[in-house]
Structures are given as structure tokens and as C-alpha cells.
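Internal ticket #5521
Category: modeling
Description: The requester needs a full-assembly model to guide mutagenesis choices. All entity lines are attached below as received. Residue total reported by intake: 541.
Assigned to: D.W.
Attached entities:
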Amino acid sequence: MSATGSYLPAGLPAPGPAPDGLDAPWWAATAEHRLVVQRCAGCGRHQWGPEWVCHRCRSFDLDWVDVAPRGVIYSWERVWHPVHPALAEACPYVVVLVELPHADGVRMVGNLLGEPTDDVVIGSDVEAVFEDHDGDTPYTLVQWRRLA
Amino acid sequence: MPERERTIKGTAAIVGVGETAYYKRAQAPDPEFRLCLDAILAAVDDAGLAVDDIDGFASYSNDRNEPSRIASALGLPELRFSNMVWGGGGGGGSAAVGNAAAAVAAGYAENVVVFRALAQGQFGRFGQAPPLRAVSGPMAYTMPYGLMSPAQMFAMRVQRFMHEHGAGQAAQRAVAMASYHHAQANPRAIMRGRPLTEEAYDGSRWIVEPFHLYDCCMENDGAAAVIVTSAERAPDLRHPPAYVWAAAQGSSVGQGLPVHNAPDYATANFKTLARRLYATAGVDAADVDVVQSYENFTGGVVMSLVEHGFCAPEEVDKVLTLENLTAPHGSLPLNTSGGNLAECYMHGLELVVEAVRQVRGTSTSQVPDVELSLVTSGPMVTPVSDLLLSASR
């Protein structure tokens, strides 16, 4: 999708890599429409969001690995009151918390594509949709849509 | 030499409380620092201390008013203790009192002020997104999806709790109505004169599901302060002391993980604290007479009450009713000043002040014969904190 075809209107702050370099691989991968998370080279455990050290074995040897772009809705919210000028006409919209069963259950935040007033059911299967944004600093968001 | 028993119980007490008038957001006639000084001086006066007796400060949530400026502005002879609890929101409210008590117990200082001052008119609003052009770090994984305000950050925790335990909206409504009910008796309360009915709650607009308008705290201007001194000195001061029986702060494993990855997600984050709090005091939930529980959002209060042992998670809609939550005769009188929802969003320090009033017997919605008065600060943030006050040392 282009920015004009994005789930939320243009005008929100542009996301990008942190200055410390920690999550540069995420932004590079999503630009290629690949879903990645960190996995510890020491103990093999996936973890999210970006961090320097393994939460389990404290190894600093963390890889970025591709994971299946499939998940399950873990929780959700429907936003009716805009708190940013860019969203003044965008409500309601739905934010979902998606659990990735193939990656030790890490969770990601995204929007649930489709009619915002449709019922949202915890436990539903969803797949990732990569939403490209143009501009001075292009970036790609990871959205989610229901699987039939 | 045997190890000395290490406990805060019986070592310190709150002996003074002070508040400015409470204002709707951006309506305070004075800037934040002036409000801060007014509340501190009121607390000193309430305690019957001299201003020069103050030698320490503790606050939380990155309060902008630094102790060095306050001490200098007031010409204090000596500053011996200054302390800040990390973390946003109101999670540090009880922890700041705990830290003040620890300073007194350790002998670092004699009379420590715990304060919080807020002028959201002078500075930014909590309920609006910060004015940014670009984001990186953890916010880069939430803000572009329209998840950026406190209500939006916590709604999914409550939604998950409701899903896991089959809870509906009734307990959250009762929490809101209890605060509004108590505010009607409180001349300080912003929402005095504006009672809340079930119909008004049910008919109110959604902010973010599952939060109605009335599930969300206000945004206000004002300041509050309390003074902590030693248990030995406390009985000689003006009012009956509110003795610190226990204080606890912290969180369970992984609660600070970015992008909503805390392993235990559907929680107010008090499960580990409540155990420590009660163990320190040597009591359990049944011994608590009255509760001030921080309401950023009512769903967080519901989870807080569950995690402090007042109600099973499957029974919240049945047990947490307006009747049970109302002073003087409810089984669990809650937020008896009106709290963040209906008295003033003083970032929860007004809840500590009210907990002291309940111990003194001077609340506008007084519970009879209060022996144990509980404050829970936070919910859903990290760290959160707890404070248990008593009329007896």
C-alpha cells in the first residue's frame, strides 16, 4: 500500500530506527516485506520488542530471524476518541495485539484491517500485511487481517 | 550479633497533609512551582511543624519541581534527602511515601515532604499525543498504529482481563459511580454537584473500548503534599499520626518489556507487591478497612482490587458493586474522596491524603473505626506501589 492507501491517515510521526542501532534490522526487513524478531543464538528463544540482551540466558548474541507472518489476536481495542490531530477524522479504528505462536508467543501491535466496527474476536487467526509509506523517510508498517 | 529485624513497620508516620484548591485543567491561577510551595506549606502547617524542620523531599513521575529549588526557595537550613521514583503515571505515589519513611527510619532526615504538583495548562496534557515529527525506540512500534495515549496503552490489558475472566462492564461502572458518589460529599471535589447515574455511565461515549468516558481519570491542575516523620516524634504533633505499617514497590517479571510483551499481561501489576505488603504488616485483605485505589482507568482498579485479595477475578461484576464500594457501610469502601475520577487528578497523591484522613477520622465520607487504610498506586504501569497506614503504631 502507499500512504494514501494506509489504514490510518497521513500525518502521524514517521517511525524509524533508533539512533543506537538496536533495531535497524527490523526496519530493513519490513521494507522487504519480511517479518523478523530477535532470537537468542545462545538458548534459541525468540523475544520482542528490540533489546540488547536475551531475557532468559543473558546472552548478547541475538539474531534477527524471519518468522511466519501469521498470528492470533491476543487482545484488541477500538479507538473512538482521537488524541492526535492527524486522527481527528479517523475514528473509530481498531488496534490489535497479535501473538505469534511460531515465535514463542511474542506479541506485536498493529491495526486490524477491515471494517472497524466489525466484531473482533480474541483467538482469531490473522496474517501480516505490509503497509509501505513513502516520503522523506520511507517506512513500512506491519498490519494484520483476518484469515477466513 | 543477631541480625536486626529489617522492617518499616512502626518506624514512621504521616503527620501532615496539604493541598491547594483543585482546578480543572489549565484553570489554576498560579504556575506549577507556586502550587507546589502552597501545598508543602499547608502540610507543614497541618503538622504543626516549622518550615525550617523540613529537611527532605520525595516525589515521583518525574515531577518538575526539584527539591534543591524548593529547599532554596524556602530558605531551608539544610537539605538532607531528595528522592525520585522512576516511572510515569501514578505508580510511584505510595513508593515515594515508602522512600520518605525509609529515609526517616535510616536517620538520613527527620521530616520528609512527599509532594506532587501538576499544571497541565502550563505544561503538556497527559491525554494528548506528544507533538513529535518522528519516533524511534519502543514508541515506533505503537504510535504509528494510533496507540499513544494512556487510555490506549491500557485498554488492551483490561480487554484481555475481561476475556480471561468473563467480566463485563458492571464492576468498572461501579468503581466510577463510587468515586462520583463520594465526591458529592467532598467540597474539594471537582465533580461535586455532578452525580453519576447508571444511565449516564452507560450512555457515555467510548474513549477507547472497553473504556467509557467515565472510566477515565480527569486532567487537573493543583498540588498536594504529605509530611513523614519518625514514629517517636509523631504523637507530639498536632493530629493523630497515620503510621506506616508497610510500603511496597516494583513489578513482576518482564512488566517493562516493550510493545506489550509482559508475560503476565492481564494484570494491574500488584500480584507480587500485595503479598509483600501484607507480609510486612502481618495482615491480610480481610483486615483492611478502606481502600484508595489509583484510577487511571476503572478497569485497572478492578484488577488492583482482585490482586489485593478483595475479590476473585471471576466475581468482579458480582462483588464490586456500588453498594459494597460505598462508605460508610459498604464491605469495601473505595476512593472515599472521589479520587482521580471525581475529586482531582493529583496523580494519586490525593489518595494518600485521603487515606490519612480516614485514619484521622476526618474524611467527608468517613468509614467507622478505621484501623487499616490502604493505598494502591499505579495500576498497569511499572513500577507500581502500595502503602498501608494505621491509627496504631
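Resolution: model delivered.
Comment from assignee: Chain A touches chain B through 43 residues (CB under 8 Å).
Ticket closed.
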